[in-house]
Amino acid sequence: MITTDDYQWLFRRAPSMATSIGEDGRYLDVNDAFLTRLDYRREEMIGKRPGDFVTTESATRIEKELLPTLRRTGRLENKPITFVTKSGEIVECLTNSLVEHDPAGTFIRTIAMYAEVTDQARADWKYRQLYRATPAMLHTVDAEGCIVTVTDHWLQKMGYTREEVVGRAITDFSSAADKKRLADGRLQALISGGEFNNEKRQVVTKSGQVLDLLMSAISDKDATGSVHQMLVASKDVTQINRTERKLRKTLAENAHLRDELERERDYLREEVNVALHFGRIVGKSPALKHMLAQVEAVAETPANVLVLGESGVGKELVARAIHTQSPRADAPLVKVNCASIPKELFESEFFGHVKGAFTGAHRDRVGRFQLADTGTIFLDEIGEIPLELQGKLLRVLQESEFERVGDDVTRSVDVRVIAATNRNLEELVVAGKFREDLFYRLSVFPLEVPPLRKRTEDVIQLAQHFLEHTCNDFGRQPLKLTRSQAASLLAYDWPGNVRELKNVIERAVILSKGNTLRLDLSLPESSGAPDAAEIGVPGSEDNIFSEKQMRSLQKQNFIAALRQSNWRVSGKDGAAELLGIKPTTLTDRIKSFGIRKPGGTL
């Protein structure tokens, strides 16, 4: 059994420099090699502190770094310390120190061993320090694939201490997929190859995070050419790969969005080119000319326009005319039919949504307002917008800003709004179904589209226009209106306005055979229609009429009905009843044509 005296004998005669330090930080004992190298006697050092025999720099390091580390970890490893001999010579050393405790955990002593640093040792130490401090993921493995050294950066990335990794197989830190790829001798084959470049590998950190690495290696070979050690440099490309995956996903989503935008572009092109089969606004009646003068006046301004009128009068065509004559003509005109949008989809339709905003939102969608940016948006049937959405619409009108559904990014747009309705918005405001502030914001410039009964002078011109286009669209040979058909058209009140007239002409073309136009007989015929000679037009059933002739036909038709009714407009057997129109309509037309009762004024 080794006694205390044996221990002291062994300690003092050890070939390496060594000291024993007490809990108070003073020397308990020093060995002969230490005394010889520093040229002191034992009694000159016992009871003194190490700081009394080192340089000022080392004394500071002892107090600031070495002692705190020793108290915290119980050991020091290859820490530099510089002693000063009795004669003043500098002795550079590396120390390894260990705190010794008894079985009860009570402090006994700290044993410190010192190795003097030679020029070669100093160079090796500096290399090791430089290697460890290199800001790169470096590690060395032996021929068996076990870790020999690692840099501090490697440890920082992986979350381990040096003691936890040195000596362990490198595959202990590989992902499950990499372990499988490197099994069955493939790791040794890789090492034996001596070097490799940009190998894709995955490792798992102490916290369980998987890192994507690119590894390159060079080897240190012995005299026989066998690999002794391999130095491996790793580049963390986790974030790069994540960004690439996100980019690929974004590109895929953008491809979907591009397809959607292309569809939207096609839609917009179609919307711009299609005008309810109108090539232009047809007619020359005073009522129409008055309205077109208003269109021309407001088109050049940025003002919002509220287009009013009955169903079928052509409010969308008027909106297109305003846009076409405005400075925004080269930008899109986007139409939104508010009456056809389900209540729960209004906000998404207007402002768009992001993927996942609600069930069925599988990708981002651009809203109509964003599509109309720098252009015009036409909100048809504006009175159908839900009250709860009207505030968000008002915000766009006031501030030109909105957010997509499910998104907190505020977007700005430059859009002119043209709204249309056949409802009385003022009555809706009174009923609490339409916001008053929104009504005033929309109705900066209200524009009334006259019903067809107030522009009868345009009926035949419109009918001929529709007939020509319908025959062309249906691939039919040209057809012509006859005198009696024209009289029937003029005698009808047209409650459905221009749209109804268009439908009647289309039905007539569908029902016609050969070159004879068959007009829908459900239209009322006027019993007071004049005959051809009376209005000065040719008598052939196949002839068509000039505009002047048609105005004359209309006027003579009204006069004939008035004569037959003894110039009574309303009531039983009155002219309005004979013509099949409302008395108010007939009164308007009498004024329009300037018809006077012989010998007096009607």
Instruction: Give the CATH architecture of the largest domain.
Output: 3-Layer(aba) Sandwich
Briefly note the structural class of the backbone. Answer: alpha+beta
Strand elements, count: 19
- Taking all Cα atoms into account, the compactness measure Rg is 49 Å
Percent helix range: 40-55%
Number of domains: 4
| Strand percentage | 15-25%
Query: Could you say what the CATH topology of the largest domain is called?
Result: Rossmann fold
Gross morphology is rod-shaped
Q: What this model shows, in words?
A:
With 602 residues, the chain is an alpha+beta fold. The chain is built from 24 helices and 19 strands. Helix 11 (286-299) packs across helix 12 (315-324), helix 18 (459-474) crosses helix 20 and helix 19 packs across helix 22. The model is unreliable at 273-279 and 523-542 (pLDDT under 50). The strands form five sheets. It has a five-stranded antiparallel sheet with strand order 2-1-5-4-3. Strands 7-6-10-9-8 form a five-stranded antiparallel sheet. A hairpin with a 6-residue loop joins strand 16 (401-403) and strand 17. It has four domains: 4-117, Beta-Lactamase (2-Layer Sandwich), CATH 3.30.450.20; 126-236, PAS domain (Beta-Lactamase, 2-Layer Sandwich); 274-450, Rossmann fold; 453-593, Orthogonal Bundle (Helicase, Ruva Protein, domain 3), CATH 1.10.8.
Characteristic key phrases:
602 residues; alpha+beta; Beta-Lactamase; Rossmann fold; 4 domains; 5-stranded antiparallel beta sheet; 24 helices; rod-shaped
